[in-house]
Amino acid sequence: MEDENKTPIVHLKDVVIGFNSSRPLVEITNMEIFPGEVVAVTGPSGIGKTTLLRTIAGLVKPISGYIHVCGSNPSKILRGEVGYIPQRLGLVRHASVLHNVMLGAKTNQKLPKSYFSSKEEKNYSLKTINSLGLTEKINEPVRRLSGGQQRRVAIARTLSQAPSLIMADEFLSELDEKTINMVLREIIDYVKNSKAALLVVEHDVSRAREMADHLLVIDDGRVNPFISETRTILLEAEK
Amino acid sequence: MSFRDNAVIWFSFIGLLISVFLINNLVDDWGRLSGSWNNLTIFISESLWPPNWSVIEPQAYPVCTVYPLFDFTCSTAWIGIIETLKIAFISTIFGSIISLPLALLAARNLNPRWISFIVRFILAAARSLPSIIWAIFFVILVGFGPISGILAMTIYTVGYLGKLQYESIEGISSIPLEAGKSMGLSRYEISKGIVIPENANDLISQIIFMFEYNVRHGTVIGIVGAGGIGYYINLYLKFLQYDKVIAYLIIIFIVVLIIDFISISARSLFTEEGDSNEDSIFTSFLKLWKETILPQGLLFFSRK
Fold this sequence. Notes:
The structure holds 2 protein chains of 2 kinds. In chain A, about 30% of the residues lie in helices and about 20% in strands. In chain A, strands 5-6-7-3-8 form a 5-stranded parallel β-sheet, sandwiched between helices. Chain A is α/β, with parallel strands linked by helices. Chain A is built from 7 helices and 9 strands. In chain A, β1 (about 10-15) and β2 (about 25-35) form a beta hairpin. Chain B has a domain at about 75-270 and about 280-285: MetI-like fold, CATH 1.10.3720.10. By secondary structure, chain B is mainly alpha-helical. Chain B is globular. Chain B has 11 helices and no strands. The interface of A and B includes residues 57 and 77 of A.
C-alpha cells in the first residue's frame, strides 16, 4: 500500500474464507493493512464480513490461503495483540464494567505481568474507562447498562489491551452522534498514536468513507485490492 | 394437524401402552392389591398413629444440662436432624469445591474433547451409585458415624453437581468466550474471568439446590450407619416402634419443607429476575423485618 517499507500488521494472500469449501464466502487475492491505517469493510448482509474478521482473529480457519496477523499465524497470535469487538460485544454481562475492562488489561503486553490483577492493570483500565465517559458506571453490572454504554465498555476493554490490531464489527451501532464522535476520536487517536491498525465492519457506507483510510467493498464475494483511498472527513476536521 | 404437532400426546399414549404391557409381565398376582387398603388402615391405626412424641424429649443419658425451655435440644430427634444438616452442609461445600474445577474441565466449549471425556467419565462414575450405596461402601471402609456420611455425600455431590455445572457452563453464550480467546486469554483466565462470573447465578443456585437435595438424602444414609437422623429411624424400625418412626418422619418432613422454602427464596435472589423491582418472598420478609418489625419491636421494648 502507501508505504511499502513497513511490515503489514495484516497480510492476506489468495485467501478463501467460509465454512464449507464447496461454498466459499469471500475470496481475497491480496490485502495488506499497515500500522496506523483504518480500513472499513462494507457490503450487504450475509456476504461474509463478520466471517472475514473472525478468520483474521483466528476463530475460524480459512479454507485456503496465506494469512499473517501481527507477524504470525492467526492461531498463534501473541497475547493481547488483537482486540476483537464482536457485533454482540461478548461482554461478561453479570460482571462489573471494571471487571470487563480489566480482562483486556490483563493481556496488555506493556504492563508488567501478574498472576492476579495488578495495580497497573487497574489504573490502566480506569484511565480507559474514564476516556470513554463511563467512570460513573464503573461498578455497575454490564447487563444493567444501555446498549450504547455496553458498546463503550467493549471498546474500553479492547483499548485496555493496547493491541496492534483492532477489529470491530458494527461497533458504532446503537450510539448517538455525540458518542460516535467521542468513540471514533478515542479509537482513531489510539490507532494513529500507537501505530496500530483498525479493521471495521461498517454497514453505513458514508460513515465508512468518513472514518477509513481505505474501503473494502465485498459485493459478489470477490474482493479486489483496495478500491480507493477515502481520506476521512472526521480526521481532517480534527486536524 | 400432523403427527408432529401432537407428538407429546402420541408419545404419552404409546408410552402408556408399553407400560401396561410391561406391568402385566411383571405382576403375576393382581389379587394382592385387593387387601392393601385394609392392611394400610390396620397399620396406621394400630402401629403408626398417634406419633410418639417422646422422640423430642431429652434422653435419660447423658443428662441434659441446658435451660429447661431448650431441653428438646437433648432429644434424639434434634441431635439426629442437626447431625443430618451438618453432614449435608459439609458435603455440599466440599463437593462443590471439588466439582467446580472438574465441571470447568468437563465443559466441551472450553476444552478439547479428550479432556472433557475423561472428566465426564469420572463425574459419571461418582454419580452412578446413589449416595446410600456410597455410604455402605464408606461404612465398610471407615466404620459407622458421620464421617462415612460426609464422604459418601461429598462423592455423590461431586458427580451430581458437576454434571449440573458443566451443562450450565456449556449453555453460556459463545461470544464472550470467543472475545476472550481472540484477546489471548488462557483457558484458566477465561474460566475465572468469563465463565464463572457469567454463570455465577446458576452456579450458586445449583449449590443451594444441592444442599436441599443432600438434606433429603442425608436422612436416608443414617439407615446404613452413616450418621444423622436415619440412624434413629433404623433403630426404631428394628424394634418395630413405628409410632416413633412416624414422629421422626413428620419432623423430617417439616425440616425439608423449611429448607425447601429457604432454598427457593435464596435461589430467587440469584436469578436475572432478581434485578427486577418485584420482591421475592425472602426479600419481602427482609424488608418487613427491617422496616416494620425491628423498629416497632425496639419502640415497644424502649417504652417498657
